[in-house]
């Protein structure tokens, strides 16, 4: 259900020209963090070079200063180090300002992916330095088809009616 953004990211991979910073925004459960992980793997990153930060728990300036120092080190075994900052809108103002400096002058081996459900809470200075990618809420039909597909892959059977019922209860969230 996210064909447009997938095409955009596939082109970056094919052309070997990923942006230095992405802003993945959209409703909860739309696949922002999952796509960030997949994208990191597809640009050649091994697990040790993919760093996930939960900004809801690590939202202060000290954590971002540590990140700012860490980005200077080269990747272990990949062409890039990818920092996935989940719930980026939860960063404090001071942490956002510290992150901004790194986004303005990132090392060539670093890619940031900021994921948020509320991009309006991020400073415009950060948003303007990222390639913004909007994840849309899937409709019931898309969710039901995906559920049926996943069930089949897991060796289970799910009727169309059951898939649709579960999809309606998911309320636009792949995760739920």
Task: Explain this structure.
The chain has helices spanning 3-14, 32-42, 61-70, 93-104, 124-127, 140-153, 160-170, and strands at residues 21-26, 50-54, 81-86, 110-116, 131-135. It is of the alpha/beta class. Strand 2, helix 3 (61-70) and strand 3 form a beta-alpha-beta unit. The longest helix has 14 residues, at 140-153. The protein is globular and about 50 Å long. The model has no long low-confidence stretch (mean pLDDT 92).
Order of helices and strands: HEHEHEHEHEHH
Enumerate the strands of the largest sheet in spatial order, edge to edge or round the barrel. Answer: 2-3-4-1-5
What's the β-strand tally? 5
Radius of gyration over C-alpha positions, nearest whole angstrom: 17 Å
Total helical segments = 7
Mean pLDDT: 92
Q: Please summarize the sheet with the most strands.
A: 5 strands, parallel
Q: What attributes characterize this protein structure?
A:
176 residues; 5-stranded parallel beta sheet
């Amino acid at each position: 259900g996210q064909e447009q953004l997938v095409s955009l990211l596939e082109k970056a991979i094919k052309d070997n020209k990923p942006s230095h910073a992405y802003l993945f925004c959209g409703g909860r459960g739309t696949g922002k963090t999952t796509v960030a992980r997949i994208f990191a793997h597809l640009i050649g990153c091994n697990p040790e070079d993919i760093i996930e930060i939960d900004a809801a728990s690590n939202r202060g300036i000290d954590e971002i200063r540590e990140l700012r120092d860490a980005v200077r080190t080269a990747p272990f075994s990949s062409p890039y180090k990818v920092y996935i900052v989940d719930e980026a809108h939860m960063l404090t103002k001071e942490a956002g300002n510290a992150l901004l400096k790194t986004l303005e002058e990132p090392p060539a081996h670093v890619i940031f992916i900021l994921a948020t459900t509320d991009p309006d809470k991020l400073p415009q200075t950060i948003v303007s330095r990222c390639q913004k990618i909007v994840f849309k809420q899937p409709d019931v039909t898309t969710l039901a088809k995906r559920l049926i597909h996943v069930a089949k892959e897991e060796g289970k059977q799910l009727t169309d009616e059951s898939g649709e019922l579960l999809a309606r209860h998911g309320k636009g969230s792949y995760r739920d």
